[in-house]
Structure formats: structure tokens, C-alpha cells
Design brief:
Layout: H1 3-26, E1 30-32, E2 35-37, E3 56-57, H2 61-69, E4 83-84, H3 85-123, H4 128-150
Antiparallel strand pairs: 1-2, 3-4
Helix pairs in contact: 2-3
Protein name: Protein FAM162A
Length: 151
Amino acid sequence: MGILESGSFFRLCERDVSSSLRLTRNTDLKRINGFCTKPQESPKAPSHSYSHRVPLHKPTDWEKKILIWSGRFKKEDEIPETISFEMLDAAKNKMRVKISYLMIAMTVAGCIYMVIEGKKAARRHESLTSLNLEKKARLREEAAAMKDKAE
């Protein structure tokens, strides 16, 4: 598709979008600053009353440890009897981030360790090729010894 063809394609799409917006202006949608929104409805009285209390949760021992490890509380005695789910979710997310950072650090440390060990093995002239050749030679000798015993 050439430059001229792509430009005409975008003009076609633009024309289709603008025509669909014209159609929606006449219906129940209004265009405000490039966004389509539904018209505001009059506020209705709720059919049943809501209490504006946040649902609370009694933390388990494991969740208490998460709250302490995440730094939300210093001691287990400071944790209230019930906590909000948002507080528990925030503590769990903080622990996930800490564990992710720990895993990243361990991966980097493991890579550095393997590079060091590889360089040591190279100085000793150990390589996978030489190890495989030695292993195959040993297996051939064992097979020849077994063949001699069988005869």
C-alpha cells in the first residue's frame, strides 16, 4: 500500500467516523470535546438504603505477617481486630513488589556467579566438548571390557 493509498484510506475512515458522529448527535449521545457521553440522568433515590461502611476483614495469622513485612505495622499487637480489604491488598501488592525485586537481585547474582565459575573452568581447560569426549571414551572402554568378558 503506497503513501497515497494510505492517505486516502485514512480520509475514508475519517469521513465514516464523522458521519457516524453526526448520526449519534441526533440520538441520545452528545459529543463533548471529542468524547461521546450519555446524557445525564436525573438522580434516582436508591431502592434500598446502603450503609457507607467499608467492609472489614479479620486478618489471619499469615495476613498479619504480610502486614508486618510490608511495613504497614511494626508489631502484631498494633494490628486492629478488623482491617479493610484495601489495606490488605495494598500490603500484598507491596510484598509482591519486594519479592520481585528480591528475585531480580538473585537472578543477577546467579548470572554473575555462573560467569565466574565459567571463567574458572575455562582456565582449567574444562569445556562441555572435552567433558563429553572423555565420557564417550570411558563408555567405549567399558563397552570393550564388557565385550571381552562376554567372550
